[in-house]
Design goal:
about 240 residues, alpha/beta, Rossmann fold, 4-stranded mixed sheet, about 25% strand, globular, binds adenosine-5'-triphosphate, ABC_transporter_ATP-bind, ABC transporter ATP-binding protein, membrane, ATP-binding, ATP binding
């Protein structure tokens, strides 16, 4: 299959057109189109197995067995649901792992400070809590100074309280850094809380989108918040009030 991965034209952080990705002859992404503006925060919802992670892997440049056009910034970083830290390296070397040259410890420590983890710089990954490990993974993404930050359910494994803190942190980092973000989540509230635009994926394409024109910080009690949440839940085919797919 043809691969076409380039830097985007000016004016867009991501431009995807006619993207198809098949596994064993079955198209998971089918003629998909997606544009993300520089600095835009986009959330991606969709039922399990609909192809969200597949799309993220393509955007991250981890999967090139595709057809179609995929234009993404050269500087991009991904955070997965599991933090994926190397257990035999302390936290700060994990943060700069894979960077070219011999990156300085100060670089890692600046990123760790940004996620509130400066004091755990020399800790071993196994001694971190789930939330701390996920913040270390976020620091590893930030140190790459991404123009596009790809987040694949980064808070999925966290307890409710830690999750709220992590969501707030991502919101703050995005506002400070100004990079484009694509956040995959199962949590409709999280999507409406953080994103400028919420997409719903179905049948291999972006089947629906809602623009979130609410001032930040957003209140769950705002009736417009509730209306958006209800509209998205309906799109996802969720008829209970659980808020997840
Ligand atoms: N390497 C692979 N080989 C074969 N099939 C795959 C491969 N990767 C993904 N798939 C299939 O593609 C479909 C989409 O998978 P994907 O992981 O993108 O879903 P998802 O939307 O991220 O789901 P979830 O919300 O559960 O994480 C699934 O049916 C999956 O089994
Ligand atoms: Mg997934």
């Amino acid at each position: 299959m043809a691969t076409d991965v380039h830097r985007p034209m000016t004016g867009q952080a991501v431009r995807v057109e006619g993207l198809t990705r098949s596994f064993d002859g079955r198209a998971v992404l089918h003629d998909l189109r997606l544009d993300i503006r520089p600095g835009e925060f986009v959330a991606l919802l969709g039922r399990s197995g609909c192809g969200k992670s597949t799309l993220l892997r393509v955007l991250a440049g981890l999967d090139r067995d595709i057809s179609g056009t995929v234009l993404v910034p050269r500087r991009k970083a991904v955070v997965f649901q599991a933090p994926r830290l190397m257990p035999w390296k302390r936290v700060w070397p994990n943060v700069v792992l894979g960077l070219p040259g011999r990156p300085e410890r100060a670089l890692a420590e600046r990123a760790l400070a940004e996620v509130g983890l400066a004091h755990r710089s020399t800790a071993w990954p196994r001694t971190l809590s789930g939330g701390e490990a996920q913040r270390a993974a976020l620091a590893r993404a930030l140190v790459r100074e991404p123009d596009l930050l790809l987040l694949d359910e980064p808070f999925g494994a966290l307890d409710a309280l830690t999750r709220v803190t992590a969501q707030r942190l991502v919101g703050e980092l995005w506002q400070r850094r100004g990079c484009a973000v694509l956040l995959v989540t199962h949590d409709v509230e999280e999507a409406v809380l953080l994103a400028d635009r919420v997409l719903v994926m179905d049948d291999g394409v972006i089947a629906h989108e809602e623009r979130v024109d609410l001032d930040r910080p957003r209140a769950l009690t705002d009736p417009r918040f509730a209306a958006l949440r209800a509209a998205l839940l309906a799109r996802l085919g969720v008829d209970t009030a659980t808020g997840t797919t």
